[in-house]
Amino acid sequence: MASATLVQPSGELWKKIRVELNENVNTRDQDLASIKEWLRKQPHLPDEWDDDRMMTFLRGCSFSLEKCKRKLDMYFTMRTACPEFFTNRDITRPDLNSLMNRLYATPLPGLTPNGRRVSVARGIDKNLDTSELCNLFKIGLMIGDVRLREEEQGVGGDVYILDAAVLTPKHLAKLSPALVKKFLICVQEAYPVKLKEVHVVNASPIVDKLVTIIKPFLKEKIKNRIFIHTDLNTLYEYVPKDMLPTEYGGHCGPLKEINDAWMKKLEDYTEWFKKQESIKANESLRPGKPTNYDEIFGIDGSFRQLSID
């Protein structure tokens, strides 16, 4: 069951989110059964997967069965293609534990009035090294996998607040565009995320350079959903102040407490993460040609859609 780290919608907000997700409570079980049957017929994908996560995918795909199939195929494909993100996912490892104590990047417990989940990323240590970026992406996808299970009622989309206070030119100089692209393909193509807004706060001129580096790897609609703030008052026009952490003038508690709760949750999931490592695509069994990872991740920006039966 989802704990207070992810408060679930109820009442009128729950109804509002059903409309946002195109979810018909009378037909959703049929849609789930269709996806389960399709999954069983794919020789290169797992035969069985849990209903909760498949329902999360359906919701993230607005109950389009074909889109859901593409996302699921890409999800299992990425788990094979990116072992650096999907193996050794143990938050008690010194490198991961240290990083999560120096850079908070967690969802907030509550939802906005329109049912969106807000996540905040805030660096605590100005000496964060760009070489730790792969581990940061690993932790982000660990949280994403927990949310696939624990967003039991679905949310009306995601909002990300990125605090750029500790960003320096040194970070940009060592940034790996290839790694950033690989992560963004995972997030945009393999996870059922309805990204509504990205807000960059405590922005300095260096942020514009970072956005310039990242933008080529973003879908067009997401490029138009990035907002830069030099003053928190403009952030409040999008995200209610009272639902934000103390550091941003809100009332949901210090970000460290929220981060600590997520560290405990990820630790509780340690054995589960280990068992999940084998749940991935087997390219040798894929009908037709195996996936060409170079085509997917090529820095030329091209992206090949997987064929779905």
Describe the structure.
The chain has 309 residues and is of the alpha/beta class. The chain has helices spanning 11-20, 28-40, 51-60, 65-81, 83-86, 94-102, 133-150, 169-173, 177-190, 205-214, 220-223, 232-235, 255-268, 270-276, 293-297, and strands at 103-111, 117-123, 158-163, 195-201, 226-228. Strands 1-2-3-4-5 form a five-stranded mixed beta sheet, sandwiched between helices. Strand 2 (117-123), helix 7 and strand 3 (158-163) form a beta-alpha-beta unit. Helix 2 crosses helix 3 (51-60) and helix 3 crosses helix 4. The radius of gyration is 19 Å and the shape is globular. The two termini are 34 Å apart. Mean pLDDT is 92; it is low at 300-309.
The secondary-structure class comes to: alpha/beta
Order of helices and strands: HHHHHHEEHEHHEHHEHHHH
Mean pLDDT across every amino acid position? 92
| Largest β-sheet summary | 5 strands, mixed
Task: Walk me through the topology.
Elements lengths: L10 H10 L7 H13 L10 H10 L4 H17 L1 H4 L7 H9 E9 L5 E7 L9 H18 L7 E6 L5 H5 L3 H14 L4 E7 L3 H10 L5 H4 L2 E3 L3 H4 L19 H14 L1 H7 L16 H5 L12
